[in-house]
Amino acid sequence: MPLLLLATVMVAGCGDGQGEDATAYQQRIEDIAQAPLKPTRTAQEKALDDAVFAIASPFDGYLGVAIHDVERGRTVQFNGDLLFPQQSLSKLWVTLTALQKVDAGDMDLGEAVSVGVRDLTVFHQPLRQIVLRQGAFHTNYADLMRRAITESDNTANDLLLKRVGGPDAVRDSIAGARLGSIRFGPGEIAMQSGIAAMEWRPSYSYGERFFEARKRVPADERKAAFDAYVEDPVDGASPRAVASALARLAKGELLGKATTTHFLGLLEKVKSGPNRLKGGVPAGWSIGHKTGTGQVLDTVPRGVIGEQAGYNDVGILTAPDGHRYTIAVMIGRTRVPVPERMDMMHRIVRAVVAYHYAAKGEPVPEGLLPPEDVTDA
To answer: What is the CA radius of gyration of the chain?
Structure first.
């Protein structure tokens, strides 16, 4: 056999046995050889990892956590690469898309917009009371963005979504920014109706009509739709991807300087979830965050807590010295009482605070954390 032919046969025989050709195999080997070695975890990172595991593993529910040290570029996670329902966390990506358009000169937040009864959506929408009282509300997109992020107003977010080009535009934005495992659903109305196994009707925007109609859906149909959503959420995201995206936002990598400052300022003014992550932030520290809260499957006997699909909080935690950490705590489903969920989030934040001082080789300031949260790591 000629030497050239023999060499070809030998290389071809080095594939993975599943149809990979010689060129692809060789490229994969070269990529592995050239990949940078992952730095060894420090003792402080291991202590944080152990603390997160100790907090998250006993939690009775489908839970994911990711913590990213922005300045050091290191991540600790628990189920951090799995997909969890985002719910209103997805408003982050609508605002990101809008501000990218502002940077590109394709949108002016001062543009006028009117909100009428036909624009109303579902669930939390403080704008509804204004519209029903006045018949129409005249404002601009800067105001709608503020309401969408700081008040988690679904109507405000839906109008902002329409202005940027709809769900496909947001998906393109996520893909273009290479944010990783973050999906964007079909919009609030379609998604929430689907989770409840319902067909949307405009009348559901008013009062308690959505909830009343949901009660009429057979329990087995509701449970099937609920389970399908949690298992494969149309708006799913991994905690690691969300924490990474927030870190890139904080570093100014996703937007221009002015739009980055605007976005971060909105996160600092969020009113929802004051006792989720924010409730665990000690004196001298600060957090800009965004919550996400899903439906409860309440087709259970009276006195039994129904399962909730999506109970989240994500944010940028800043130490007194300016060092930043992004945190994503995402609960896919749980029956755990809300106070216990909040306590778990507080403990995650305090673990990050303890890590911060340990990584600097400094003791935690006296009285800053409960004694049980202070370690010698």
So the answer is: 24
